[in-house]
């Protein structure tokens, strides 16, 4: 079913954690096209290299999938928009958006600077905003699509030394629920 539809998929944050395991799964079930982005290029400790991204793309291709490396700073709206346009130009469509970009950093709240707070919540919240805004016109034009957000238990339960991450993921949870109500009329599933 999926291969026949030639689905194109964009994953924000695919090099680590859940995102790293995801590409092989989608190739295994026959998603024909796969495109990916790297997030947080402006935080030195979490800077993903093009070589790392290309390695994952080669693994996808070796498994029979089609993939491209598309790198953008996820908190830079124009850069995300340009990346999405490149994906659509390459694959001709965009059917899925997976919001997985996040940084897992532990800092006691008493020691956390406002800059650290803003930078980590920006990746999750602002990055998700930019990705949805850039992808939405293409999904509406295609007559539908899917947006999947990946959170975690800390969104609802909280996590010591990861207040910024918990807040970002809880905000993403709210965004997901609100977008599900708003975008359903466009046949765009959000969960």
The stretches of 5 or more residues where confidence is low (pLDDT under 50) are 1-6, 38-47
As a percent range, the share of helical residues equals: 40-55%
- The mean pLDDT is 78
Indicate the radius of gyration in whole angstroms: 16 Å
Note the overall shape: globular
- Beta fraction of the residues? 5-15%
Major beta-sheet overview? 6 strands, parallel
Describe it for me?
This protein has 191 residues and is α/β, with parallel strands linked by helices. The chain is built from seven helices and six strands, in the order αβαβαβαβαβααβ.
In short:
By secondary structure, the protein is α/β, with parallel strands linked by helices.
List the helices and strands and how they pair.
Blueprint: H1 2-5, E1 9-12, H2 18-28, E2 33-37, H3 50-62, E3 66-69, H4 77-91, E4 96-99, H5 114-142, E5 145-149, H6 154-157, H7 163-183, E6 188-190
Parallel strand pairs: 1-2, 1-4, 2-3, 4-5, 5-6
Top keywords for this entry?
191 residues; alpha/beta; six-stranded parallel sheet; disordered N terminus
